[in-house]
């Protein structure tokens, strides 16, 4: 149950209050690097889990939960500091909260959840780039953020379709 990838995922949960503390102290760039460290643990835990065949149902649920929880913390920090609009924050929050709640409900109903895949990881990377552009106040940051929000909703639709197919196959094989 608890293996190296799952411990790395737990580290991402621990980095959430670290990020918020650093951001709240006004050290925006340092906060971004805390977020980047969380992203690197995400890459590392996925790599180790696949390479050593340590993918678990717990990890499949906790990994996206850690990603989404961190992203919600980032969204809230950016909106409360007026770096993004509440409209962008609501769109991002609805998507991420929907993924968290949906995954948890399906897990506790005994349904199989879809593990993070390349498209989901790409969406996360795109969000990191958007956050980088926003925190460092680079040109076109806000337009790029909206592009990423649209991509993230498309990714969610694909996850939902994969979930339906995965559980339909599972129900048919029983």
From TrEMBL:
Give, as in the UniProt entry, the pathway in which the protein acts.
Lipid metabolism
Query: What is the protein name stated in its UniProt record?
Result: Phosphatidylglycerophosphate synthase
Q: Which organism is it from?
A: Paenibacillus gyeongsangnamensis
The similarity annotation says:
Belongs to the CDP-alcohol phosphatidyltransferase class-I family.
UniProt keyword annotation of Nucleus present = no
InterPro entries (alphabetical): CDP-alcohol_PTase-I (IPR050324), CDP-OH_P_trans (IPR000462), CDP-OH_PTrfase_TM_dom (IPR043130), CDP_ALCOHOL_P_TRANSF_CS (IPR048254), Phosphatidylglycerol_P_synth (IPR004570)
User: Which parts pass through the membrane?
Assistant: 6-23, 30-49, 69-94, 114-138, 144-166
Which keywords does this chain's UniProt record carry? Lipid biosynthesis, Lipid metabolism, Membrane, Phospholipid biosynthesis, Phospholipid metabolism, Transferase, Transmembrane, Transmembrane helix
Protein task: This protein catalyzes the committed step to the synthesis of the acidic phospholipids.
Which membrane topology term applies here?
Multi-pass membrane protein
Query: Signal peptide location in the record?
Result: none
Cellular compartments annotated = Membrane
């Amino acid at each position: 149950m608890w293996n190296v990838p799952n411990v790395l995922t737990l580290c991402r949960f621990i980095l959430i209050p670290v990020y918020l503390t650093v951001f709240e102290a006004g050290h925006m760039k340092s906060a971004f690097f805390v977020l980047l460290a969380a992203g690197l643990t995400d890459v590392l835990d996925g790599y180790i889990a696949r390479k050593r065949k340590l993918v678990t149902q717990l990890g499949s649920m906790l990994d996206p939960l850690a990603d989404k929880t961190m992203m919600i913390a980032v969204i809230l920090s950016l909106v409360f500091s007026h770096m993004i609009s509440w409209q962008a924050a609501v769109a991002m929050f609805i998507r991420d909260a929907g993924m968290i709640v949906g995954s948890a409900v399906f897990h506790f109903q005994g349904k199989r959840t879809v593990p993070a895949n390349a498209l989901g990881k790409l969406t996360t990377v795109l969000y990191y780039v958007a956050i980088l552009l926003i925190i460092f106040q680079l040109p076109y940051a806000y337009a790029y953020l909206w592009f990423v929000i649209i991509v993230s909703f498309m990714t969610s639709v694909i996850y939902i379709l994969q979930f339906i197919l995965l559980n339909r196959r599972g129900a048919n094989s029983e």
